[in-house]
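Re: that chain you flagged

S.,

Sorry for the slow reply, it's been a week of failed gels. I finally had a moment to sit down with the sequence you sent. For the record, here it is as I used it:
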Amino acid sequence: MNMKQRILLLIKRLAFLGYCTFEIESIVKEAIGSTFVNNLSKTQEVAVVQHLEMYEQLGQNYLLTYSK
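Prediction finished late last night. Pasting the structure tokens below so you have them in one place:
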């Protein structure tokens, strides 16, 4: 799986976890200063993936904690 596919997969996972489009765009913007994920440099791709993975983990932890 390449980085672009990874980013798109993580965005889908965040949406599934309940993050709205605005929140996901804010996460991406926090990582690279822009909401666009097309034509990113490798450094930007890594930053976006790291941020999306962090928020995916936070979302999963929240579900595990409060869905009992």
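What I noticed first: The helical segments are 3-16, 21-32, 42-66.

Talk soon,
D.
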